Amino acid sequence: ITSSSKTYDGSTSATLDSSSVTYSGLLFGDTFTGSYSGLFANANVGTGKTVNITSSYSGADAGNYTVTNQSSTTADVIAKALTATASASNKVYDGSSTATSTLSLSGFIGSETVTSTNSSTFNNKNVGTGKTVTVNSITLADGSNGGLASNYSISTGQTTTANVTAKALTVSGITASNKTYDGGTNATTTLSFSGFIGSETINNINSSTFDNKNIGTAKAVTVNSITLVDGNNGGLASNYSISSGQTTTADVSVKQLTVSGISASSKSYDGTTSITLDTSSVNYNELVAQDNVT
After folding, report:
1. How many Å apart are CA 38 and CA 15, to the nearest integer?
2. Per-residue pLDDT of the chain (294 residues; tens, 9 = 90+)
3. What angle (nearest 5°) sits at the alpha carbon of residue 69, between those of residues 63 and 71?
4. Which of 67, 133, 239, 290 is most buried, by CB atoms within 10 Å?
5. 240-241/167-168 β-pairing
6. How many helices (H) and strands (E) does the chain have?
């Protein structure tokens, strides 16, 4: 008598095969029939588990025999495969492809459940929307209601999507260059940043302005826009963000203006020092376009 292996089903039931049963000592021509049922010692997964056999006999000649029963056989109970559905959390860029995912498991027997921990990764570390997340490993743990992790199995490879958003940088330093009056409010500023991941750095281009065009000391300079540019050590501008609006001060100094082109008319002696000038060709060298100087 043999028993078939089975997938864990929460019961101790076993399926016996008595098609090859032999009765040693049965006399030729006697009518003797056996029926058999089997139970595993427990319901749990295992290899070469004992199946206890319960026997009963019938037939016209059954009463003429005492029977030494086959008390047991062996078979396997294999883990029941669960199904997992994954969901993943969005994250801020951290320089790694590590993802945090949660699995919803189904396929349990009755009210049993087990818990799981998993390791998941984004398809790459960089910022993106709807990025693929793959579950690489799953570890099952016993549940609180009798569910044993060893009675279940789970395959990996589930996928879902989540976002990686840009990491916000902080402007840790800002300086503005003094300038000579040029009729405009444009300012030249230099920014330094903090908040990078590891040794990554990036460059920047910014647009800044003085509060007005006129000369002054310690005039307010405001950064109006910042464009981040990839660094030369693996830092990608798209993985970071920065807000504008930073302020500092700088000076606008007086612009040197040179006047030329004025001529004087000769005159006859009249006892005075007065002279007649001709300013029709006056030239204001370095005068800023559209400025009004007379």
Report:
1. 7
2. 999 999 999 999 999 999 999 999 999 999 999 999 999 999 999 999 999 999 999 999 999 999 999 999 999 999 999 999 999 999 999 999 999 999 999 999 999 999 999 999 999 999 999 999 999 999 999 998 889 999 999 999 999 999 999 999 999 999 999 999 999 999 999 999 999 999 999 999 999 999 999 999 999 999 999 999 999 888 999 999 999 999 999 999 999 999 999 999 999 999 999 999 999 999 999 999 889 988
3. 155
4. 239
5. parallel
6. 0, 29
Q: How far apart are CA 217 and CA 228, in angstroms?
A: 30
**Residue 258 exposure: Cα atoms within 13 Å on the Cβ side:** 4
Backbone angles phi, psi at 94, to 5 degrees: -130, 10
Among residues 42, 48, 69, 56, the alpha carbon closest in space to that of 3 is found at: 48
Cβ contacts of residue 231 below 8 Å, gap of 6+? 200, 201, 202, 203, 237
Residue ranges in 32-185 assigned as alpha helix (H): none
